[in-house]
Amino acid sequence: MRDTHDPVQTQSPSPQPGGTLIVFSSIALLFLTLTSGCAAPNGPREKLAAAYTQLDSPNPDTAQIIAASDEYLQASPNGPAAADAFYLRGRALEARAAHDVNSAAKDSADAYNDYSEALTKKPRPALEGLIHVGMGNILYFQDRYAAALTEFTTGYEKLERDNDKAWTLYRMGLCAQRLGNWSEADKNFAAVQQAYPNTVQAQRAREHQGATNFWVQAGTYANPTMAESATNDLKKQGLPAQRFQDNARHVQYVRVGPFTNYETAAGTRQRILSKYRDAIVIP
């Protein structure tokens, strides 16, 4: 299952708004400042700076970003902006992976390699933080939660923008949940709400806080009869299905569980996915 950097409707296989967790709108300006000097108006460095601005777009031109990164690296493989070029290339591949299921595995692996290469090019601290977060994001979507948590933790202290820090701290909580470390997850979710109140990240952290088990939500039904039918169908398959009423939304949720570990819940979701195509693991 994959979302994008928002990181996170964690249960949804569909791309979510926000790119790859970080939207660093001022980074192009910072990049130009740090690499200032004489250069052609449309030289590789300037094209790289223009590619950075694509990260603010809801639909970044990944081909343009990759082309600009490749052009710079061909001209200056060890230049002062080599870390930026590899980072940008990784971001573009990660964005493409989120929207193209056919290339997702390869693009994600290539993006991780580009991030790893960026770390060898002596990135400035703020960029280093973003690179580690990018690596953590890929590991998260590969269900490698322990490794992802390490990368998020490493990158968090180096990040400069509150928005980036809030998303990263939230994702650290999700990793802890997926690992079954419920108390550690709640500490992270509480920290998000305390440090970044009145944000989307704080709202999502609040929604995830307090969980102690996993469930597979097979569907949401406005018609109670349909919800009952789905529950009975799942029970016939030997699954512990239950109905839950949401009075605020006037709907019923049909869920299977509870499960003590994420792997079992994810396996159950996969088992019913052909018939219940909207099935998600929660939290």
Relevant terms:
2 domains, four-stranded antiparallel β-sheet, 12 helices, Alpha-Beta Plaits, disordered N terminus, 283 residues, alpha+beta
What would your notes on this structure say?
The protein is an alpha+beta fold and 283 residues long. The chain has 2 domains: 27-208, Serine Threonine Protein Phosphatase 5, Tetratricopeptide repeat, CATH 1.25.40; 214-282, Sporulation related repeat (Alpha-Beta Plaits, 2-Layer Sandwich). 56% of the residues lie in helices and 9% in strands. It has helices at 27-34, 44-53, 62-75, 82-99, 104-119, 125-141, 145-156, 162-178, 182-195, 200-208, 224-236, 262-272; strands at residues 214-221, 241-246, 251-259, 280-282. A 4-stranded antiparallel β-sheet has the order 2-3-1-4. α7 runs antiparallel to α8 (162-178) and α9 (182-195) runs antiparallel to α10 (200-208). It is elongated, with a radius of gyration of 21 Å. The two termini are 14 Å apart.
User: What radius of gyration results from the CA coordinates?
Assistant: 21 Å
**The top level CATH class name of the largest domain:** Mainly Alpha
Strand content: 5-15%
Q: What is the H/E order? A: HHHHHHHHHHEHEEHE
CATH topology-level fold name of the largest domain: Serine Threonine Protein Phosphatase 5, Tetratricopeptide repeat
Query: How many domain modules?
Result: 2
Q: What's the pLDDT, averaged over the residues?
A: 87
- The CATH architecture of the largest domain can be given as Alpha Horseshoe
The named CATH superfamily of the largest domain: Tetratricopeptide repeat domain
Report the structural category: alpha+beta
**Uncertain residue segments:** 1-26
| Strands in their spatial order, largest beta sheet | 2-3-1-4
Major sheet summary line: 4 strands, antiparallel
How many strands in all? 4
Per DSSP, the total helix count is 12
Write down the overall geometry.
elongated
N-to-C CA distance: 14 Å
Helical content class: 55-70%
